[in-house]
Amino acid sequence: MKIKLLFLLTGFLFYCLSVTAQDFAWQAPLAPVTQEGYYQVLLPPQVVGRAQPHQEDLRLINQKGQPVPYLLRSEAPVQYRTLFKPYQILRYTRTPGGLSELLVHNPQKRTMNNISLLIGNAEVRKQVSLSGSDDQQNWYALKEQDLLYAIRNTQKTAEVKLLDFPLSNYRYLRLQLNDSSSAPLNILQAGYYDTYSQAGKYTRIPVQAFSRTDSAKTTFLRLRFGQPVYPEQLVFFISAPQLYHRPGKVVLGKRKVYERRRRKRRAHLEEISVPLLLHSNAPAVLDLPRYQVEELEVQIENRDNQPLTIDSVRVLQLNRYLIAALEPNQTYTLRFGDEKLAAPEYDLQFFQDSIPQHLPLVQVKVLQALKTEKKPQRRSSTLLIWAAIAALALGLGYMTLRLLRDMEKK
């Protein structure tokens, strides 16, 4: 009987602690998946705005009520990527004991000052020379002599070697290799590395109310979202006039700033704003710092000009994803909206490189409120809860002590 009572008290104590540990305000089910594997769940503005700033309180729960490990990924405004682009190898004449020749085609006459050669691993040193031509008849020197040293890649069976030469744009390149002292090299590809930029992907934030006022040579645009959001880009669609140059600013809100005056610490509200310049020769796009708002105000200085004809303003948020392993015939739910919950620590964070970058996309369904208006908890009720927990802990200690004494007597 005492043992049963002990277990009941222990269970009740853990229940009280668990209730005070997590207090989610929102949940949203995920769309079902058809195959087992890793997926990326697109977090819409409604989720990102109501969660903690870095989504520390986000939890993915399966149909058994168990948490599912996940990773978070986010798009960057601009991503720089490097891509190997091969040239066409017209011929590679191998002459063991003589002079081998590699002929490379540069059809666009691309200006270059180096060429990358993908070569099979070889413990050898080769003397090479490089020349260029536009007709394969008249050849001109680019590099009289250079050395290709040992090609030894411990991770792969081939390695890229870079051969530098003076800036040129010949249609054809001829690489001659001295194979008099060793067998020819296995040259697999010839090309160059191209670095390009790619814009990040955005999700549109719905605007609940939009108003415009033109007064005192200034245009005021007010955008209300009806919920907390994190706008990160504004796109203006302007149809007139044809030429314009308008400065302005975007007001994100106000924050409390403290300063000392005559040994007294006083607070005042300071405007948070971002400068804006709308110019007909540039895209009407403004990147914003990440800041939680429920409304925005755009101020455009018209000076002595007629106000701009602005057809619409698009508000965007950089895409953020939750990466997790999902199974078919399972239901998954996102829970969030707990201001005090710390970020989870999953083993999955140590295996980020093992998960592909490109994954199938899963959408979040309609949000559901788990609690209505958040009421401030009374201090007396909080003290009462902790007093009850303390009493339970004392009772557990007393019951455990008596149980141990009874066992010693037996």
Describe the structure.
The chain has 410 residues and is mainly beta. The chain has 3 domains: 24-75 and 320-370, no CATH class; 82-198, Jelly Rolls, CATH 2.60.120; 203-318, Galactose-binding domain-like (Jelly Rolls, Sandwich). Helix content is 14%, strand content 48%. The protein contains 3 helices and 26 strands. It has helices at residues 2-21, 45-50, 379-409; strands at 26-29, 37-42, 59-61, 71-74, 78-86, 88-93, 99-105, 112-120, 126-133, 140-148, 158-168, 172-178, 187-199, 202-204, 209-215, 218-229, 233-240, 245-261, 264-279, 285-287, 293-301, 309-318, 320-326, 333-336, 361-362, 368-369. The strands form 6 sheets. Strands 6-7-12-9-10 form a 5-stranded antiparallel beta sheet, with no helix packed on it. Strands 15-16-21-18-19 form a 5-stranded antiparallel beta sheet. Strand 6 and strand 7 form a beta hairpin. Helix 1 (2-21) runs antiparallel to helix 3. The longest helix has 31 residues, at 379-409. It is flat. Residues 12-21 and 373-378 have low confidence and may be disordered.
